[in-house]
Amino acid sequence: MPDTAAIQAMLEQVVDPCSIATGLPISLTDMGMVKAVTLNNDGVVNVELRLTSPVCWQAANIIAQVEKVVARVPGVCKVICTVDPTSEWIPDMIAPGPRAELRRMRPIGALS
Length: 112
Prior knowledge:
Distance between the termini: 40 Å
Strand order of the largest sheet: 1-2-3
Largest sheet: 3 strands, mixed
Helix content: 25-40%
Number of helices: 5
Radius of gyration: 15 Å
């Protein structure tokens, strides 16, 4: 059975493409974009994401990257990454460290 900590570590390597454009690359996990990770006894990992925008043009690339890196975890036989279109992402979901860094980089009020 795959190690959940190893799966989490791999997800932390996937960076939100839009955050790169801001000059502060932030992982999907720190962005709060990973809604759920489940794994079954057969080595199948399901990763459910929420996107920062319902019209995210990078969605396919994000999904492909998640599936690629999680598949590297020993014991993972298959990765299924999906997006929950009903799950809303809000800036409050960003982890405290990256949020503080974004606030430092942006004018006051630009990030709730």
